[in-house]
Amino acid sequence: MDNNPLWYRDAVFYEVPVKSFFDSTNDGTGDFNGLRMKLPYLHDLGVDAIWLLPFYKSPLKDDGYDIADYYSIQPEYGTLDDFKGFISEAHALNIRVVADLVLNHVSDQNQWFQDAKKSRDSPKRDWFVWSDSDAKYSGVRIIFIDSEISNWTWEPNTKQYYWHRFYSHQPDLNYDNPEVREEMKNVIRYWLRLGLDGFRCDAVPYLFEREGTSCENLPETHEYFKEIRKMMDEEFPGTILLAEANQWPSDAKQYFGKGDEFHMAFNFPLMPRIFISLARENSFPLINIISQTLPIPDNCDWAIFLRNHDELTLEMVTDEERDIMYNEYAKLPKMRLNLGIRRRLAPLVDNDRATMELLNALMFSLPGTPIIYYGDEIGMGDNVYLGDRNGVRTPMQWSYDRNAGFSTADNEQLYSPVVTNPNYHYESVNVESELRSGSSLLNWMKKMLRVRKNYSELLGRGGIRFIDQKNRRVLTYVREYKDQRMLCIFNLSRRPTYVELNLPEFRGLKPLEAITKSPFPRIGDLPYFFTLPPRGFFWLNLTVPDHEDEKDFDD
Ligand code: BGC
After folding, report:
1. Per-residue model confidence as pLDDT tens digits over 88-117
2. Is 202 a catalytic residue?
3. What is the DSSP string of 450-494?
4. What residues flank ligand 1, with Cβ below 6 Å?
């Protein structure tokens, strides 16, 4: 493995649930050996790091985010040796692996909670948050509004309520208890010793509770993560922390601290605004949100994503923005869940190839580390008729064979049906077919990841400067790092359009289109003029001062 200390800034991540990728035992559920067998695919795709969804022992009522034992692996996913084999083979391919870590809550099946609810005197009692009244911390928002009516649930044996920010089967841990804080550090040490490169920390804003507050983003929470960071820097240098903090920009940014808290945080503020900008065909929401989310400390980065395993969350947008999103992207009530939209990328944009390319090109060129959700690289569909968020967690589509090549189990045995909707059927939307077709989305994604790798420092670490121009339908910015520069131009609208750019500082340069290396005319005194097809974009390399040696088509 390379020893680049800023590896997470230059990387492209790939999010994958173990159960969904490849089933090596033919029991209908994916496993670590299956994932190991598919590492060459991920390497060939060009990803640098994998984010594993929770794989710990769990009753799977919240797909593993309900952990029953932090020190063991869900049996269907394999053994500890399978896990270690997977990690070492990933490392041999220079692919790092970070895993989900659920700190805020456990499964009610966890022995800690089982002990705690035996009696009020249980040594584990204080590991959870109890109250005689469900009016405590009143006003704290409920997150899973479609399934929960309170953050408190009555425990009949000991006759008190326990606190939970998510499902009622997920009691929150009490971080005021020093034993809890220490135990979670031990969990972290345990998995880092086994070779993980870091954690995606689940639900970080909610660790502590204080009366009279929203019980989110409290100073105590930041302090605790700083302690964890310090411990990791000292004991496991090179490992990282990635925060899932779905918050408004000013609160989300706090998770970087002064470069001494999280290395990365998901850019939740940006994600819905990418889609809003497209729906409104207007660059303003994007420019506005990016301006609010920067700057951040140099050793930190945002993680940019288009979709993930959850609903496309609309908690932190205005009511007007949410309406725009629902009207454009979730026309059927079935497509909505909680305050969000449970759809994959391809169906969200009506399977429009140009829009998928535009969105990915944005994700790969905006400041931050891109995270691809498994299957989105082949344009997989979803199934909104499966409950909860299961419609976006169906088996990976490898080929047109039985069960999409995911498993040779009987199809009734699969953990989830494969997608068979004619527009996204696995018989055509699958890795094998797409690898054979030069014009497939998968081959386009591979090409883009190769291009991005050529510019990994510029796009991974560079600054961003928006270029002022009159056409709001077009987003224009320059990425800059040391002496490298890339001009990026995106037509957010469904119509062809044009844009005129005043580029006096680049006068005399000849832009080189970065993906095909096609030369563009020299920048002169007049405004530089571009025409763009619907949802078209350009990445223009301005680094080479002149490329007279390259053949122009009119030479
Ligand atoms: C995860 C969800 C999960 C929730 C509760 C999150 O934010 O991404 O999938 O249901 O935490 O653990």
Report:
1. 999 999 999 999 999 999 999 999 999 999
2. yes
3. HHHHHTHHHHHH-EEEEPP-S-TTEEEEEEEETTEEEEEEEE-SS
4. 62, 65, 102, 166, 202-203, 244, 309-310
